[in-house]
Each structure stands twice: as C-alpha cells, then as structure tokens.
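Hello Y.,

Per our agreement to keep a running log of every chain we model this quarter, I'm adding this entry. I've kept the format consistent with earlier entries: sequence first, then predicted structure.
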Amino acid sequence: MSFFYLTTYKNTRGLLAAFVLAAVAIMSSSASAMASTNNSLDNTGAIPKNTVIDKVFVDKSARILQLLSDNKVIKTYHVALGGNPIGHKQKQGDQRTPSGAYILDYKNEKSKYYRSIHVSYPNAADKARAKKLGVNPGGDIMIHGQKNGFGQLASITQRLDWTEGCIAVTNDEMDEIMAAVKVGTAIEIVE
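Predicted structure for the entry above:
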C-alpha cells in the first residue's frame, strides 16, 4: 500500500512540475506581449544625456514609476508593489508600499535584489502614527530590480505585486534608473 501512495505521489509531483513549466511557458509568451505594451508607456528611447531628474513619481493604482525633469515626464516604467498595496504603509510586515513625499537617500549596490535606491520611509509623521498605534513602522523600502538570480523571470514577476512593500522594476530598468537618479532626489508616491 505504501508503494502505491509513493508511486502516486511521484506521478502527481511530476504532473504538477509539467503543469507549472507549461504555465510558465504560456505566461512568458503572454508576458513578452505585455512587455512590448509596457514599453510603449514612454520608454521609446534612452534618457537624454545631461537631463537632470529632479523628481520620481509613483502612482500605485496605475503601477507606474515616472522620472521627471522640471515637471516633464522623461520616462515611465511599469512597477510591481507590495503584496498588499492598497493604502498607506502602517507597520512592518503589512506588505504595503507607503504613500507620501519622501527622499531617495542612498543607493545600495550590494542589495539582495538587483541594485536598489532607498526611500526615506518612515518619515516623522509615519513614526508618530506607528507610535500611536503601538507598532513598528517598518523600513527598508526601496526601488529595486529583481531578486538576485531571478532577473530572467521579470516578464512574469512584474505582472504580480510580490515585494514586501518595495517598488520593483526589471534589472535593465533599474540600471537606467540608478544612472539617472541622484541621491537626494524627491519621490512622491500616490494611491
């Protein structure tokens, strides 16, 4: 009897693996089509040299990040957010991406995700709100690329809200953002 269950378990596991691989292949081809649609957002070329990006704007409901110079949109990217993105971040572990005005205060080349820029969350108001609620406000909110070693899956992962509250882009997009955005740049995140 145990042989029967073991054989069935192995066959089920094999079928499940085959199903997952087939789903990934289908999603990859669909994601390629989606990626070409996303690239039409404003991503038709490189950021012009000598362009000073003075603000980063994130619209959580539209799932976009925009680089602005003198209130003009220079480039737009599709983003993935925290797994529970609706509403302002309240506490550590709530998987929400914060909303509000912050500063991009440092860059991290040794991130466990492909490159990152830190968002200055929590600010004084966030800390006061968390204290009033008796919770830890959390932190380590970043704009980052894909988890190290998984960059090739971006066409799939960018279709989901998968971060702990960060703002995720593809690795190539992260390279472009890192080159264009200076430490000290303002970031506004809206619902």
